[in-house]
Amino acid sequence: MIKVTILLCETLSLFELGCATELFALPRPEFKDWYQTKTVTLGRQTLQGLGNTVFQCPAVEQLPATDLLVIPSFPVDVERIDPLLASEVRRHYDQGGRIISFCSGSFLLAALGLLNQRTAITHWRYAEQFKQRFPHITYRDDSLYWYDGRIGCSAGSAAAIDLGIAVIRDDFGYEYANAVARRLVLPAHRDGGQSQFVQKPLAPVNAALAKILDWAVKHSGSGLTVEQMAAKANMTRRTLDRHFIRHFNMTPHQWLCERKLEVARQLLETTHLSVEQIAGRAGFDNAVTLRHNFNKYLSVSPTKYRQTFQSSQQLV
């Protein structure tokens, strides 16, 4: 069982705290294995939240033994880190523990030197403040989150959920991560390499395009092509391309390939099917095409992916 500690620091951001609780502390009896999570503060039991709220949780002088430390938020204007907080977070890391932060929590990781020679991300509204205060740290403006298996940080709000789902996927695999996403009523998980879209929000998806997306998801495993999608939508290929780039910042070919890869990933994790069989079920022409797309989009071979994520409990 993986032990998680959610660490509350000073003034709380309620949304990010809710994300951490929903992702890691909510009981999930439908899973054979899951996280064992504690929520604590260091030194003081009562903390202020936004909107004139007050929170109480167990106060400790030392972090409990934990595999993953989650920092939902941290005040961006605090430059002098409490010595107890600093020593306990560093002790956890030095003992091999993982740490992820949501939104402004990256300011704490940066102040403690844990993002040196790593990539940093925070909410776009704090980006300039972060870069001015920590000019030696590589900052990414074009990503939702970043996670290297030891340290992770995310942009604000919903990107915290994306990072959390990525961690769950690493810990338990595709099916667990998707089940959590479904319970959160989320669409397909976004990878970290997407822009925060600060100045150019996505245009609303019209009803006709929404219908073709639903249809394509249901038929992506039957060798579906972009030309068939365009015909179903009563559009030319060029018009469909334009709609996809406008709404999703990708071509329909890229979108369709991602859907097929999702099917392939699930089958690799949960079945004994050969790579050739999985290629056919996922809608790829053959195993060679499947391997090419795995390496192109996931930087790993299907066989290596299966070795990493497949568990005997999930096999059918």
From TrEMBL:
Residues 210-308 form the HTH araC/xylS-type domain. The keyword Transcription applies. Keywords: Transcription, Transcription regulation. GO terms for molecular function: DNA-binding transcription factor activity; sequence-specific DNA binding. CDD domains: GATase1_AraC_1 (cd03137). Gene3D superfamilies: 3.40.50.880, Homeodomain-like. The keyword Transcription applies. This is AraC family transcriptional regulator. It comes from Alteromonas alba. The lineage of its organism: Bacteria, Pseudomonadati, Pseudomonadota, Gammaproteobacteria, Alteromonadales.
